[in-house]
Amino acid sequence: MEESSSKKFSALKAEQTKAEAELADSDALHRKIQY
C-alpha cells in the first residue's frame, strides 16, 4: 500500500517537473521572440 502511494507521488512529481520545464521553455521562447 505504502509503496504504491509512493510510486504515485513520484509519478506526480515527475509530471509536475515536466510541466514546469515545458512552461519555462515556452516562457524562454516567448522572451526570445519578444526581444
Q: What is the beta-strand fraction? A: under 5%
What would you report as the Rg, rounded to the nearest angstrom? 15 Å
Q: How many discrete domains?
A: 1
Oligomer: single chain
Written as H for each helix and E for each strand, in order along the chain, the element string is H
Structural class based on helices, strands and sheet pairing: mainly alpha
Which regions are unreliable across 5 or more consecutive residues at pLDDT < 50?
none
Query: Termini distance?
Result: 51 Å
Count of helical stretches = 1
Largest beta-sheet details: none
Task: Please give the number of β-strands.
Answer: 0
Arithmetic mean pLDDT: 90
Shape, per Cα inertia axes: rod-shaped
Helix content: over 70%
Briefly, what is this?
By secondary structure, the protein is an all-alpha fold. Helix content is 94%, strand content 0%.
Describe this structure in words.
The chain has 35 residues and is mainly alpha-helical. It has one domain. It is built from one helix and no strands. The longest helix has 33 residues. The radius of gyration is 15 Å and the shape is rod-shaped.
Describe the protein's topology.
Blueprint: H1 2-34
Task: Name a few traits of the molecule.
35 residues; mainly alpha; 1 helix; 94% helix
